[in-house]
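Sanity check

After download, print the first record. It should look like this:
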Amino acid sequence: MILAAAVAACWASTAMAQSLLDPGGLTFKDFAVADHGASFSRNDSIPVSGASGAQLLHVDEANGKAQVRFKSVKVEVSVPLGWQAGDDGERGVAFSGDRSYRLIVWRVDFAFEGVTGPEHYAATKSGAIQSRRPGVKAQARKLGDGSVLIVYENVPASQGDRETRTVFDLVMANPSKPNEGLLMTVGVPSGQAGRGLGLLALFKQDLRITW
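Expected structure tokens:
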């Protein structure tokens, strides 16, 4: 447990020093289940309880991933084989078979949120969360491509979780319309924060946004 905490802290520190996200040698196959793509429906959608289907575009068995489209947020992203994905009309969601790794993709209206852009949004959100949950530690840093990475440590476990969580927020702005943004959130068990950061980098590499 002590070693896991030390590794998590090290990776969180590394995240703050990076100018760009880096998978650190990880690939989607490190998070995938070798099921020959059977976890994904061959129809137009991947059903998830309480959500409409995310559209399946392509299964890449060799690289352990599937490309899906979240229609509500106009985003295409790759997720590991063995995961489930869905779209509830307001956000795209995906999660591992045991639900311990979770991805959410949201649209953000910076003007509606009362902020001027990704940095202001990150400062406001992280401050509000730390105020409501004093045990949570948040750090934010602007990356080289203009996006902002927020790392939340010691996030309380939700129902079904076995330990506290580390959550990564990546906030991006529309290059043409600064008031429009996208938020990609990845949550993982605290003891696996390093892997979670690498997975966030993989999601970012394959991300396609229709602004």
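If your output differs, re-run the checksum step. Summary of this record's structure: The chain has one domain: 2-209.
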